[in-house]
Write a structure and sequence with these properties.
The chain is of the alpha/beta class and 214 residues long. Helices cover 43% and strands 10% of the residues. The protein has a five-stranded parallel sheet with strand order 3-2-1-4-5, with helices on both faces. Strand 2, helix 4 and strand 3 form a beta-alpha-beta unit. The longest helix is centred in the first third of the chain and has 19 residues. The radius of gyration is 17 Å and the shape is globular.
């Protein structure tokens, strides 16, 4: 049942969402539930890791985003930063002041997000290894595997702390949803195709309705 959402070319045709009459979101649901059960049973961040998670994302009302802009293979296409901005600003308006946590491999975009996006507060890990080009972090920093793995784990847990999640097909995104399975129904996958895509207005309405009930 292991999830490989970004590499469906290796999945037998008869087991793919379309063949089963399901959307990708529906298809992923039982796998995410089983993943969440295993994670909640067997995984606990060590105290030092938990401290790093809370430092990275201290927000109690937030949207998390996983923005992958270096290598993105297996048919996945890089989405423009402006697309993520539209969801972030819709969230900010609908939530009445919620903050944003950003996990990204691209160190060149954080200044743009912090200075140009209309959102009250932006959180992200400080002083971590990021790429400045098209090479993945695990290739750029091959001799820093313990550090990059630790920083990746912190990002996964920090993303999971938020109420909403915008992401693409990624093992990092799946891990965050395993940690907080409620995000399955409060997330937007920008790599979805056609009618599966949750539009910005629909997302904004979901956010408004969620916070009205709290």
């Amino acid at each position: 049942w292991a999830v490989r959402p970004w590499a469906l070319t290796h999945t037998p045709m008869g087991l793919r969402p379309a063949a089963l009459g399901q959307t990708t979101h529906e298809w992923l649901a039982p796998m995410r539930q089983r993943g969440a059960e295993k994670v909640s049973k067997y995984f606990r961040p060590q105290p030092r890791i938990q401290e790093l998670i809370e430092q990275a994302n201290p927000a109690t009302k937030c949207l998390s985003m996983h923005i992958r802009l270096t290598d993105k293979g297996h048919g996945r296409k890089k989405k423009p930063l402006e697309l993520f901005q539209s969801y972030a600003e819709a969230y900010a308006e609908a939530s009445g002041g919620g903050s944003l946590f950003v996990a990204t491999d691209d160190g060149t975009i954080l200044n743009t997000i912090e200075t140009s996006w209309k959102i009250s507060k932006v959180y992200h890990q400080k002083n971590i290894l990021r790429s400045s080009g098209v090479d993945a972090i695990f290739r750029t920093f091959q001799n820093e595997t313990h550090r990059t793995n630790t920083e990746g784990i912190v990002d996964m847990y920090a993303m999971s702390r938020c109420d909403f999640f915008v992401h693409g097909f990624s093992a990092m995104a799946e891990a965050a949803i395993y940690i907080n399975p409620a995000l399955h129904n409060r997330s937007v996958n920008v790599d979805d195709i056609g009618e599966e895509v949750v539009s910005v207005p629909t997302f904004q309405k979901l956010v408004e309705e969620y916070y009205k009930k709290r």
